[in-house]
Specification:
mainly alpha
């Protein structure tokens, strides 16, 4: 869910004035990421691979967006 909707989540939380719904969305994303951290610690290879794929995706996405914004 996070991977598929990351751009929508970022656009929504960055473009709107803070309100109860935005705060709930941010809290939900934070809880989801914390849950993934916990899942990453479970000694199950396939689960670890899924988590690793997500962490790779999110770190790459952050890197590309950071590089893109520093060019302007």
């Amino acid at each position: 869910m996070l991977k598929l909707n990351i751009n929508l989540i970022e656009q929504t939380t960055n473009s709107m004035e803070p309100n109860e719904n935005i705060n709930m969305l941010r809290d939900s994303v934070q809880r989801g990421l914390q849950y993934l951290v916990q899942l990453s610690n479970i000694p199950e290879e396939e689960l670890f691979k899924i988590c690793l794929e997500f962490w790779h995706f999110i770190s790459h996405d952050c890197l590309m967006k950071t590089r893109g914004s520093s060019m302007y």
